[in-house]
Amino acid sequence: MAKYILKRVLISVVTLWVLVTVVFILVRCMPGEPFQGEKMTPEIKANLEAYYGFDKSLPEQYIMYIRNLLKGDFGYSMKYLNQSVNKIIAQSFPYSFDLGIRAIVFSVSFGIIFGIIAALNRGKRLDYLCVIIAILGTSIPDFIMGAILQYLFGIRWGLLPVAQYLGFKYTILPSVGVGFYTLAMVSRLMRASMLEVVGQDYIKTARSKGLSKAGIVCRHQIRNAITPVVTVLGPVVASVLCGTFVIESIFAIPGMGKYYVESVQNLDYSLVLGMTVFYGSFLILANLVVDILYGIIDPRIRLQESR
Amino acid sequence: MAELMHEKNDDFEIVGKNVTQMESITRPSLSYWKDAWRRLMLNKIAFASMILIGIYILLAVFVPLFSKYGYADVDSDKMNLFVSSQHWFGTDSIGRDLWVRVWRGARVSLGIGFLSAVLNAVIGSLVGGASGFYGGKTDMIIMRVIDVLYGIPTLIVTILVMVVLGSGINSLIIALVVVGWIGTARFVRGEVMRLKDSDFISAAKILGVKNFQIIVRHILPNVLGLIITNLMMAVPSAIFREAFLSYIGLGIAPPECSWGILAKEGAKMLRVYPYQLFIPAFFICSTMLAMNLFGDGLRDALDPKLRGTE
């Protein structure tokens, strides 16, 4: 186990380093002078040049950049005067985190429930309904899902608020919008996994022991079927993150995704890069946690890896 | 009893062995590909999906060619018109005909989807195949690199590449290919490693077949089905990515349009003119749906384990 964790950590660290280095190189590959534009005031320019150390040699710049990152300093925005990227992240991250957690809880729990319902009613109407939801969910991009939800529930029927993020009522539509794709993915996986477990010998044994059907389903089938769902948690975090980008813009939620999209549209390179490094590290860390978690749950994985 | 047997014996005559008939094959032999094709045709959902995609491709090719409106023609007298006989899908906020724009967008979106998926499949197969086939040090180095690259979030890299290269079709394809080949490489490597140890490859090696021949004649046909399935599955996700990037303002540069751009422009008018979003949204979703269902059907049809089961 220790060897497995060590290997995972090592790969993650190297990955992070590659990402950071790629960002460093890309900043210098950008066409023309990267920090230029009518929005650029001398103050911001001075801040940026001091941060990136454009007057120094490349290796010095690189060391400076890494040192800044290790200190957790992501640089300055090009658009907002004297706003550091850190400050923007600190302000907006809580919103995104809140939305992300809600979306994950919603999608994973409902996905598992739908998967279980579908598998237990195999070949019946409920099963088809769940399968159709799953297929639709994987075919509707989140920005379209968000817009449809906003139109139907917000504008057409006036049931839920269409924008902002002020209370529970406001969180429902964005969470569904972000999580629907994941819900579909999880329910599909859960259904397949449940059906696979049904055929296993230990289910037969449990049945021949005379356990009740509910007992078998809860204690043996679901418990065993749920393990593979853990594997997709890594991709789930990534897809939820991707969802927050557009959903936050659509619902005017002041989270990181909205800032990210805005900074892309404003060509605020330093904010894009700072946030990219932040997002990248966050995702790599999330993947590491999921990998280790999976190694703990399923011993076969770590044996396979250490071979 | 004896009587009975006697009578029976008279009824029969010995005709001897007919060697030619015994050995003849009564049913026409089906190659793997013919069989897969037959099974794909039997799958109604996959077949319908294939037809739908075919129709979309034809419309994408021909509508922009023969329409009287250009996809970027602005007409300030005809802004935000609803669906009519003049403008089949209405017009957008600056008076462009949406019917033409949808199919122009289809051309761009489908083109990017297929092209990037094919490039990913080719690069991934070459790298993964080489890694799996040669093994040893080559394999170790490639796999370490892939492990690290695999860890970098795809979305982040795609966005970074787009920021650096600027928007446009070419940079979009590059951005999608930079990270897209890794998945293919990983599974092709696994498959090739499994095949390499199988008996028929060993037999070929013992008979002195050259490596190149082994790869082309024995390994490739066995992996091709999987690669094609994977490729088809990669098309919708590439379309999805393109739409996402265009939506957040990184993909295609106006006046060129894609489905993502149309959805983005439609979303701005959602309150007043919802059809401007829902029409392109319908085409994005139906394409994704058809591609996913077709991919599923193709996977079932090309899976050698399912051959001749029904």
User: C-alpha Rg of chain B, in Å?
Assistant: 27 Å
The arrangement of helices and strands of chain B along the chain is: HHHHHHHHHHHH
What is the chain-wise order of helices and strands of chain A? HHHHHHHHHHHHHH
- Count the E strands of chain B: 0
Give the biggest beta sheet of chain A. none
Largest sheet of chain B: none
Query: Measured on Cα atoms, how large is the radius of gyration of chain A?
Result: 23 Å
Written description of the protein model:
The complex is a heterodimer of chains A (307) and B (310). Chain A is mostly helical. The radius of gyration of chain A is 23 Å and the shape is flat. Chain A starts with a helix and ends with a helix. The longest helix of chain A is centred in the middle third of the chain and has 36 residues. Chain A contains 14 helices and no strands. The longest helix of chain B has 37 residues. By secondary structure, chain B is mainly alpha-helical. The mean pLDDT of chain B is 83. Chain B has twelve helices and no strands.
Helix-strand layout with pairing:
The complex is a heterodimer of chains A (307) and B (310).
Chain A: H1 2-29, H2 42-52, H3 58-70, H4 85-120, H5 125-139, H6 142-156, H7 168-198, H8 201-208, H9 213-225, H10 227-231, H11 233-250, H12 256-265, H13 269-297, H14 299-306
Helix pairs in contact in A: 1-13, 4-5, 4-7, 4-11, 5-7, 6-7, 6-11, 7-9, 7-11, 8-9, 11-12, 11-13, 12-13, 13-14
Chain B: H1 2-11, H2 19-23, H3 32-42, H4 44-66, H5 98-134, H6 136-151, H7 154-165, H8 169-196, H9 199-206, H10 211-247, H11 259-268, H12 275-302
Helix pairs in contact in B: 3-12, 4-5, 4-12, 5-6, 5-8, 5-10, 5-11, 6-8, 7-8, 8-10, 9-10, 10-11, 10-12, 11-12
